[in-house]
Design goal:
elongated, homotetramer, DNA-binding (chains A, B, C, D), DNA-binding, 9 helices, transcription (chains A, B, C, D), transcription regulation (chains A, B, C, D), mainly alpha, Bacterial regulatory protein, tetR family (chains A, B, C, D), 182 residues
Chain lengths: 182, 182, 182, 182
DNA sequence: AAATAACCGAGACGGTACGTCCCGTCTTCGC
DNA sequence: GCGAAGACGGGACGTACCGTCTCGGTTATTT
């Protein structure tokens, strides 16, 4: 519906606003003003700031055609460590963190957005990881992928404790042991 | 500050509103009207609906003197299964789920609330579990507690897949194996 | 400019809308939608809903080749009574009243429309009446025509009081007396 | 409801805006901004710009405690001439004319406002005039009052022709003659 | 019959205003 | 003199229309 030029302007405006204030303080009016676009144009294509931000994030990650590529060096421990480190870096990246937290919050009250999120970001990630585990003949690879991702996400989301290399190594070790791979 | 009678009325109003509409649609004005209290009275004691709801939840769980009691039957697998089942039941309890999701969302943008939450609810839970693990001589019990809780939370929060008894059993099994207890 | 077919569709749409809602609630978009015509087509030929309605009214009254014909029976009192009754019926006609009131309102703020209205509808009416008066040798027939029309219009416009046969008779009587014809 | 200070600010803002642009271009937002008042405050007490303007006009004419005082010099012709001249001056007063025209327009589509207008302004005027006529033993004084006022209003409203002293004199003469007073 | 306009529908677009909701502060008034 | 009731300035909401602007399809000539 929206012309490409318009989408681009809106994405840029949304991301720039996200960089300079609490995501919860971003408004439709603010995005419209920053993008030089009318509110109606926004509402024609998106129904909340959450949708716009998610769309902007998606567009950005597609631009960087950053499909989650899971490394496969042959050594599962090494690969999982790299994966965990990558995830942690991304979660902690100051240009992304606020956005990711806000998106997670939004998912709690917006089922449609949650479904989109699962399909577009979560499932590719989990199935990438479980695929790698399957290649290593790990049993129940989907569940083990969750065992791998869950604690990282839990720590990050509840800010319970910080991440360090030592913890990552121990975590990978525990996951492998649980999979019977050690 | 607020008189006990007032606190009670406000808590009741907040929880009753939470039971009948999306938590995000709860407003200070709505709570004041429902509680038969002036907005000023609300602002004297709380500064957001999030605070009121958190306070109401705390008060309720203290009333039910619901300290997280971790079972200790001697058989760690049995105890962890009971724990997981209890957590899952609580997370899925329709009278709580919306509130818990909303609270989780709120934590993402309110540091003070997040700190309170960690101190009052999260840490007691995690340390209860890790204490039980320590009694079973599991190494790094804090980390294993997180390995246990993280995936459950991840599934629930992202609604990625549903819980069933089979998955719980397998999950407990994996956690124990990762701890070297199997 | 506009093709005849288009003009007809637009007139029909405008009048049908006027029949089912307050005239002030008629919009260019509404007319376009009802007529199955694009907004641009409307703007090419008219610049406001007022113009369209006026145009539609004019077209309709030309169709009914409804030029104001002033009766001339020889008896001035009878003729004026018939005229007054006719005017009152037309003003009170439910299919016209809203339109006429709205048009009168519009005239207050649209000079161009007011001039068109005077030339196309008001002057023919007044000069028809004054012509009839002149034939009866009434002095200052234009002014007496206004004396005749003014109070009727005043009553209708300000809805001050309703019309009945008795009042009409007395009014005609007064007008004739003022003209020295009684 | 509205505090006196607020009403005053709003009235001043509305009248000042009316002085500098077409009345139809006055908006609730504009008045709110000019008055330094929130839109909600406006809507708490008035539901349209028409109501505000009418209220402002009323307040102003009450301030000047300008009840319509009908002169009574003993000579009816002299008094009616003075009355007509006064009405015409007021209708033509450039600071009022736009407002009065707009108000007349508004009355056509707002029944509540029309009723208020009749009760507060029109009836006092007409009954003042008919009272003066009654003192001069004119029969059907209410109807004659309308005969007097109607043509003046008709001329003004439809801008059909302008007023001059000669016309006024002839008009008064006609009205008196119709009443049998000449 | 093909080329060339004029006209049209559809509807995206930047805007302005609407009327509403809620925010957090301030004022009033009755107990 | 405290506290409910609620007025207030403010900001954002989501919607309705405004008038302008492409964009493809007809229609009707005009060659």
């Amino acid at each position: 519906m929206a012309r490409e030029r318009t989408r681009t302007k809106v994405h840029a405006a949304a991301l720039s606003l996200a960089g300079e204030r609490p995501v919860a303080a971003i408004t439709m009016e603010g995005i419209a003003a920053r993008a030089g676009v009318s509110k109606q144009t926004l509402y024609r294509s998106w129904s909340s700031t959450g949708e716009i931000l998610f769309d902007a994030l998606l567009a950005r990650s597609l631009d960087e055609n950053g499909r989650v590529t899971v490394p496969n060096s042959g050594d599962l421990a090494v690969d999982l460590t790299a994966l965990a480190t990558g995830m942690i870096d991304e979660l902690a990246d100051p240009t992304q963190e606020r956005l990711l937290r806000a998106l997670t919050a939004e998912l709690q009250s917006d089922d449609a957005l949650a479904a989109q999120f699962r399909a577009a970001l979560l499932e590719p990630q989990l199935s990438g990881i479980s695929e790698r585990l399957r290649q290593a003949s790990v049993p129940a690879p989907e569940d083990v992928a969750e065992l791998f991702v869950g604690p990282i996400f839990h720590r990050w989301l509840l800010r319970s404790r910080s991440f360090d290399a030592e913890w990552v190594a121990a975590h990978v070790e525990r996951v492998l042991r649980s999979a019977g791979a050690r």
